[in-house]
């Protein structure tokens, strides 16, 4: 069984070895193709990046624990990597290590300060979910209430900061980050903050309480688990058991119910972004469950992005400008959000075609199962590629983009067929 944490020296040597190997590959690739024509160079570069991506994923996946978590977070920010590297490290999100129950038991007892059989009436030794920094067990409290207990692997939090520095060094040395140093600093600062928040279950408990209160006031069919503070700590989080069906099961339900669930999901995330200015930013389908009464359950508030009032205002102006087809204002807002390298370069006709595609799912009677916007977007990418460097990944927009894109695919899974324009207008009115 792979260990979840090893000595900093061993982790450093593994990462250093990976970096040295990739640096050697990069140099030898350049030498080998000195006399190649442009097309051969592009093909060789793409093959090299695929190899690099696989090597990063394999190394980080083997190391488990902290480094693997860093790799997963890097894969969430895949806009900053070449696509070949992004595809390879994205697979880290699907890998889940297992931890012996004895280690889990001692972690819970240490954190809660009492024996497991005193704290809980029963505690299932088999986890029903495992991730890179912890795993989740079902349990029953002395009062008889069914709960889920999230337990962080011992030692993961101490290893994370040094691991993030090493991964950044490795990525920088192999030259696979597509952004300048200043933007790298901002991005890795955000990754560090995100990592710190995920590693501190007390922050997640606060998030759960805030979002539960927020949604309860707006819609009693948005269900968020309740925190049991007396059975929780920095590394243990005990929550009410909230059962629901998976997105796969919900996708077989009648269309009116699927539409109701999808609208509820869109409205909840939109309200978080535009009103609460803090949003759940892990749109993985496993973080959502559904009930036949139209309820949507949202799990895992470890990943939350907070937005400033200024950023939300830029988002609103950008949405309004997009609906009006005002290219000049769109570029002003993208520039203010640090997402534009140069104004006036991307052709206006391409902007207008992209706007129609991007707004189609939110402004027309749209069949998500047919997914026409995605198919048309893939065709339009070919014509847009030579201008692509006009846009750049921005720390202000990355998590919002990822969340919105993720929920688009959730609506495809639910096979929605509806016109969401009234919701869109309600969340961002055309005129305040």
Describe this structure in words.
The protein is α+β, with helices and mostly antiparallel strands and 432 residues long. It has helices spanning 8-32, 38-63, 65-76, 83-90, 101-112, 116-119, 156-173, 181-199, 201-218, 247-250, 255-276, 309-324, 327-336, 348-363, 372-384, 398-414, 421-427; strands at residues 122-123, 129-130, 134-140, 146-152, 222-223, 236-240, 278-280, 288-290, 296-298, 304-306, 365-367, 417-419. Strands 1, 2, 3, 4 and 6 form a five-stranded antiparallel beta sheet that branches. A three-stranded mixed beta sheet has the order 5-9-8. A hairpin with a 5-residue loop joins strand 8 (288-290) and strand 9. Helix 2 packs parallel to helix 4, helix 7 (156-173) packs antiparallel against helix 8 and helix 14 packs antiparallel against helix 15. The radius of gyration is 23 Å and the shape is globular. Mean pLDDT is 85; it is low at 1-5.
């Amino acid at each position: 069984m792979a260990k979840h944490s090893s000595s900093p020296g061993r982790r450093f040597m593994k990462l250093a070895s990976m970096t040295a190997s990739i640096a050697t590959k990069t140099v030898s690739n350049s030498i080998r193709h000195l006399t190649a024509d442009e097309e051969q160079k592009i093909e060789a570069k793409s093959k090299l990046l695929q190899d690099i991506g696989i090597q990063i994923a394999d190394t980080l996946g083997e190391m488990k624990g902290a480094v693997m978590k860093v790799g997963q977070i890097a894969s969430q920010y895949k806009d900053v990597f070449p696509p070949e590297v992004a595809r390879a490290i994205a697979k880290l999100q699907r890998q889940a290590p297992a931890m012996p129950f004895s280690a889990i038991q001692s972690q819970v007892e240490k954190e809660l300060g009492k024996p497991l059989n005193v704290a809980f009436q029963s505690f299932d030794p088999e986890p029903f979910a495992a991730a890179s920094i912890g795993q989740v067990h079902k349990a029953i409290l002395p009062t008889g209430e069914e709960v889920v207990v999230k337990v962080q692997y011992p030692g993961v939090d101490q290893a994370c900061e040094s691991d993030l520095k090493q991964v950044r060094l490795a990525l920088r040395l192999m030259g696979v980050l597509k952004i300048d140093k200043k933007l790298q600093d901002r991005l890795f600062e955000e990754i560090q903050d995100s990592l710190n928040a995920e590693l501190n279950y007390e922050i997640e408990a606060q998030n759960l309480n805030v979002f539960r209160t927020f949604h309860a006031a707006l819609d009693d069919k948005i269900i968020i688990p309740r925190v049991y503070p007396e059975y929780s700590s920095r590394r243990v989080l005990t929550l009410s058991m909230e059962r629901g069906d998976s997105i796969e099961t919900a996708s077989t339900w009648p269309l009116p119910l699927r539409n109701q669930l999808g609208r509820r999901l869109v409205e909840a995330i939109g309200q978080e972004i535009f009103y609460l200015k803090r949003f759940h930013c892990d749109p993985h389908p496993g973080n959502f469950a559904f009930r036949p009464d139209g309820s949507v359950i949202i799990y895992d508030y470890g990943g939350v992005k907070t937005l400033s009032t200024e950023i939300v205002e830029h988002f609103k102006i950008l949405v309004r400008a997009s609906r009006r087809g005002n290219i000049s204002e769109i570029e002003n807002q993208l520039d203010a959000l640090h997402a534009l390298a140069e104004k006036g370069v991307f052709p206006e006709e391409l902007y207008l075609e992209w706007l129609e595609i991007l707004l189609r799912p939110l402004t027309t009677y749209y069949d998500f199962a047919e997914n026409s916007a995605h198919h048309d977007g893939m065709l339009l990418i070919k014509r847009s590629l030579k201008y692509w460097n006009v846009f750049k990944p921005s720390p202000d927009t990355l998590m919002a983009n990822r969340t919105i894109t993720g929920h688009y695919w959730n609506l495809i899974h639910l096979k929605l067929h509806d016109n969401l324009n009234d919701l869109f207008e309600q969340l961002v009115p055309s005129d305040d």
